[in-house]
Give the backbone structure.
Amino acid sequence: MSEQFPSEHFTPAESDAADDMRRIKRLGIGAGIVALVVASVGIGSRVLSHRHLADESAQAAVPTVNYVLPQTGGAVSKVVLPGTIEAWNSAAIYARTQGYLRKWLADIGDHVKAGQPLAILEAPDLDQQLAQAKADYQTSLANQSLADTTAKRWATMLKADAVSQQESDEKQGDFKAKTAVANASLAAVKRLEAEKGFTRLTAPFAGTVTSRSAQIGALVIAGTAAAQPLFTVSDTHRIRIYVRVPQGYSAQIRPGIHATLSLPEYPGRAFDAVLVRSAGAVDNASGAVLVELQTDNSDGALKPGAFAQVSFPTGSPAGTLRIPSSALIFTGNGTQLAIVDGQGHVVLRPVTIARDLGKQLEISTGLKSGERVIDTPPDALETGDKVKAVPEPKAPDAKA
């Protein structure tokens, strides 16, 4: 049992001191409680700050990308393909006989008529062969004439029974043999005369001389694989244009349609051409159909051998979608697009390009309408990455 000390046993000074001690204790406890509350509030605010900073860091780590929505192909479009320009007719002039070039009568750029001489060759050995052939022909004619006279004479004697039938038949056979020899000699003369005519090179048709390799005094050797054409004559009053059309557009490009030609040497000028025929078969090597167009070239602006850009009016193939060319990704797995799914994750998907329109591409497979395609995707983007997708900003004057 604790011992009680009644207050009346303390002196007034001792009582005041006790009251002061109680007040000090109360103040210390209050100060401790206040300090604890302040510390708790400080710790809580720091925890909240750290959480807020972590959330901001996490959000900052998610890249923001711009996306575009695929557009359907236009109803009327055009496909631009390279074409090769060829002359209406073109002939390489080779020598048919061996000799030396005595002179040439036409040069590149000259307009020539059909049959106009281009060059003249000298062939002295051929002249001697022709002279010998003519002499042999005269000899065979003399032998033929003698055999004819003999055969007639023996036929007359046969009627008088002066000679036998066998002897008369032999003379007739000799005459026929001599006639055959004469005919062979005549054929040899004509052959050499024709070969002699080849020493005069002429234009096969009216046109323009587009090449000349003939040089005066040069030895011309005919009939060898290494022989080069002495001249090339091209008829350019009309022009043929050959184009290889990809299989995907071959059904839309048919004979009768008009196409537009553009050439780098004529900026701003367009030439109209008509498709006249198609090969009707797909080449295994190129996967394209060869077609031919024709156009008038009365002014000589189009040159054989030149390349042209040929624009065909076509519609976009069914099911194709258009996207900016800047959205395309080239990787070791081929051409791909970065698509943002509904949860904001990236999906890299391979696609097939149907047509390159310059700033836009037509995609035939691998893309669906309404999917969000990242425009100008970062190089480090991978499938499964989290992104924040926002619509691609458009310029006020942008055209769809």
